[in-house]
Please model this.
Amino acid sequence: MPELLRLLQEPWPWYVSGPLIGLTVPLLLLLGNRAFGISSNLRHACAVLLPDRLKPALFRHDWRAQSWNLLFAAGLILGGVLAATLLRDPAPTALSGAAVQSLGTLGVTVQPGLLPAELTDLTRPATWGLLILSGLLVGFGTRYAGGCTSGHAITGLSTLQRPSLIATVSFFAGGILSANLLLPLFLR
Amino acid sequence: MISTTPTTTTTTTASGTHLLRQWPFLIAGLLFGVLLIKSEAASWYRIQEMFRFQSMHMYGLIGSAVLTGLITTTLLRRSGLHALNGETIHVPAKEGPTRRYVLGGLIFGLGWGLAGMCPGPIFALLGSHLLPMLIVLTAALVGTWAYGAVQHRLQPRSP
Model:
């Protein structure tokens, strides 16, 4: 038993975790004919939180009919807690040498955990800038595109939808641009 | 609050929207949250590595996820099986003008490349990094609201 736990605490290889992530699509279809997608929860949360007179039409949908998705999001939070406690991996992410070097030139050191100090140290104003700008763009962009990595890249591509291919290519184009050109402005 | 057509409590329960009946989705979310962390898809480092083409980890992860999803979903749809709630299995089509997928996709990508988080990891990392993640989540909600506020100017006829 301790051996199994230690094995689970190590990072799971992509060829194990990737297929498991893919199985989420048929699992949710089988459980209740639900299309896998996480960013819709941001829309539902807006519908729940906003007072009626400040509510644009987008948030006047029947979010209660989508309560399964809010439960899924609650599960994500619980799963994250489980993975960070019982299944916690004490070692830093085993990045490629090239990545360690690139991040090093930006002043970032690889430390245990999934986030660097540049994203968690709230005494640095740049951290706030990075977190806020990133969140704003993710919220605006996912709703504009009608989905995120789960809804388009996983569900959409799994069901051979052309709009999802366009969206996924655009996700990567934007990500490559910002990781290489925009991010350095916040680091050094 | 938008009022739906008057329904009695019994029909609401029968339609399966009652929270207690939805517990399998909580478990599915829990498993997916563990997967996001243990696969390192929620690792800022891995996302930076991916956007610099310095390892195949994330490409193998996303590629094998899509391939598995494609095969199993196709088999499921062809099997004629029904969902556990009795509904015929149906994946809604993504529609609308190409522009929203390009522009929305680019904007989301710009955000993803900065803090390394798509919406899944924002939820999955809340437990281990509460304050920073609350900042990202709040900003993401503001961003979502901002889209809702300008939506009619961006795409007048889409839902």
Notes: Residues 127 and 156 of chain B are 39 Å apart (CA to CA). DSSP finds seven helices and no strands in chain B.
